[in-house]
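Incident log, structure service

09:12 report received: a user says their structure output differs between two submissions of the same chain.
09:20 pulled the input from the user's history:
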Amino acid sequence: MKFTNGYWLLRDGVTLQRPAEVHDLEIREDELVVHAPVTRILRRGDTLNKPVISVSFTAPREDVIAVRIEHFAGLRESLPRFELRDAPVTPAITRDEAAQSVEFTSGRLTARIALQGPWQVDYLWDGEVLTSSTERSIGYAQVEGEGPYVHEQLSLDVGESIYGLGERFGAFVKNGQSIDIWNADGGTSSEQAYKNVPFYLSSKGYGVLVDDAGPVSFEVGSENVSATQFSVPGERLRYEVYGGGTPLEVIERYTARSGRPPALPEWSFGLWLSTSFTTDYDEATVLSFVDGMAERDIPLSVFHFDCFWMRGFHWSDFTWDPATFPDPRGLIRKLHDRGLKVCVWINPYIAQRSHLFAEGAEKGYLLRTTEGSIWQSDLWQAGMALVDFSNPEAAAWYASKLDALLEDGVDAFKTDFGERIPVEGIAWHDGADPLREHNYYTHRFNRTVFELLERRRGTGEAIVFARSATAGGQQFPVHWGGDCESTYVAMAQSLRGGLSLTSSGFGYWSHDIGGFEGTPDPTVFKRWTAFGLLSSHSRLHGSNSYRVPWAFDQESVDVMREFTVLKQKLLPYLLETAEGTTVTGAPVMRSMAMQFPADPACRPLDTQYMLGPDVLVAPVFQESGRVEMYLPEGEWVHLIDGEEVAGGRFLSRTYDVHSLGVYARAGTRALQLVRGAEVTA
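09:34 re-ran on a clean worker, output below:
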């Protein structure tokens, strides 16, 4: 949200007050609190009739500093809040009379607050300034017709790049963008996002989390071009600064606080095949797809049933459509006998015709309005309501309905939707602030389903395929990129979204091979197949057309076989990488900037990525087959054709559909797994 009209003026309807200087400070156990009036205090009368902004500093973990900016302290706490893991450290609080400053230190990260002169807080890592809050950074704004907001601006250095803020499909480097943290079902070609995370990662080696589950607004060098501004509605703003030195170290510290992905089952890394969405399918169709893949020697790991495994107008009632699936247990048994796992689509919306609607209404498990009525909508399913996951009994009730599907033999769930959550006239069971619950709803939904799978299938066997998320959602993997078009442009959009998400603390990411909307050109499908099978998780899925390769041409069959086999060869390497994800939070798919932060050429790259630490992937996004890519310093070997290349330079190559830019670092396990004895020392 923008409050100013250029440097000098405010926008119409906005009043803005800023802390002028530190008036006094206090130390409360392990907390430092500074109080800053909005004007300089020159005489006793200046203390009257003006706000004081209080800023507190705490150390929730080593190398992390939490900041709270507050105007009125008496307002009720807005819930929900992110579930952050504390491991408090005793900070060092030292006052430097000569420098007229006070320092608050957590590990190697220090906040240095100026006690004289204009407002100034510098955040330092090992004594070097990372970013600063300056005299125009903190603002307490009143916006006509909307109420109060609090904002902070942290300085941007020359050449500094900002990444993250969830799965965003625009430019990978966020500088110059205005970004609202607000989950929405907007596809992959707009500024909206399914997975909004108020965390950003800087190329200078620090991260910032705005600790607010509600609508955080970011101006990344787009209001003050020399700062990243973030604002929230209300009387207080919380944020945390994460030191780290390198992006991967910052992610390690951030995920220690916000949660790390658990171990995933080995079978989840194989190829998933879907019915697609609105296509016609029944038991015969499903078995023909599965048997067709086997007949063509394409290894398959999971079969997914999308929405119409249930009857239309009944989503979600978790009852198989008897017209198309008269014997679901028998069908699942046949799929298991073929060595496959089974996934089914679900969402948290309960249609009026679902038999669960009346039951949920009677028990008080559906979201209600402030007037006491059940909230309903016709958008998606006729008369649908929402499960109120803020009620633990409602969450347990919902999980119990899924339990019957696990008895049928279902192994995983695709947890779709969760973004269209109302905020006007809503009363949540636990009294949650509707503005904060909007983004957080999906967190409760995915947690309910994931924890059910952990209880029933055991640790290391649970997996969901989730579309929406917010901060901390990485604890309930895996997430996929949502509804993209079936074009080269949409494929590149999807990759940018995935790299932004994995820059936001998420360890795994997937996307619909071939695109979702429309039917891809056969060449696009083949190019997307290579990209999809060199992602952490790989799923064939579409909207109104099938994604079995023979629906396109024989060459598509060959390409799919080749890249499925390639991923199988890489599986030990991927599993080792995934073990690291569980321990440190390092994502399996990561940007070049994350893996090679010291190489300035890597900072803007968003058409290539690293699959683990040693495999560079540059998908083909051009009809010509041409790829322009950058290889960092070192020796690299192409995984398919064996080309050996010295890095530290840009390359241009043209590939047929059986290849793409995929290089491994010389001498690494990934290279040995794929090329074996051909690898040179």
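09:41 both user submissions now match this output. Likely a transient worker issue. Closing.
09:42 reviewer note: The chain has eleven helices and 39 strands. The CA atoms of residues 50 and 128 lie 35 Å apart.
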